[in-house]
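Schema walk-through. Below, the input block comes first and the output block second. Nothing else is stored per chain. Lengths vary across the set, and this one has 329 residues.
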Amino acid sequence: MIFDLLSCVGINHQKSDTSVRSRFALTKLQIEDLYQEDRLHPLLILSTCNRTEVYSLGTPIKELVDLLGGDDVDLFTQHYYTYSGEDCFQHLARVASGLDSQLLGDYEIAGQVKDAIKLAKRYKQLTGIFEKIINYSQSIAKKIRTQTNISTGSVSVSKSAVKFLLSNLTDLKNKSILVIGAGKMGRDTIKNILTELPSPNLTLINRTDTVAMNLATSLSINHNYYNNLIPQINEADIIIIATNAEDYLIYPNLIHNSKTIIDLSIPKNVHPKVGDIVGVTLIDVDELTKVKDETLKMRKLEINKAEDILLKQTVKFRKQLIESLKYKK
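--- output ---
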């Protein structure tokens, strides 16, 4: 059956830490380059702070490993996983629903998967039965999110960043906060800061100045220009960075005073040795997701219900595929 040709290769938070995941994270431009090369077809590539994965239909696993592993394929094979057939289909549904997230039920992943699908469609990577499989996995994920409490409550990476500040720092209203990056993660973080902190001294910087200015204006916060990044780094008490930069933006030589830095980016945007500086607290995504609260406890109670929906919907879809193939014959 054609369903059995579905396969996935990936690396995620369950198999590796942020330093390893950073080596294989892909920016939007890098993913577009891979699609344009058209070495393999069809493809769906997903790269988030938790994972980098590629899905395909009829492509040998080794070719998918080579695609993501690149020059570091030996390191990649020490941490990667594969899924095939129905296991692959269900894995994608788990990812999109938040069942496989570092923070159970993380609602941010749903948007990231949707964006990945839109990008693949733009480059005509989702066609025929492969597109049908991808779309149905998304409908299952939606059912899980709407028919269970797996995503109820407010738990996400951006939310955890703000919770970390509230739990570990005092006098936040008098501390200056610099957010670097105006993408989805940056925007969500800013909105959480504005919700949780009273009148924060908050400044936004983005590589494209007009994007920072427009977002800052809409949210009534301060913005600064990217060419002022270094002085702003030193003036800030708290830095939250979430960009798509392919390399470090903050190095040890740029830090001259005490501060808290939260790096939400994969690949990492802050050099690890920054954390060795006296007076500096450096937190990454893996540290942030080590949270235990009542919301997560409640979500865990929904896992069996979510898995039951996934199983029943997989059986239903398998029957639909068999019938459609019979009809074509």
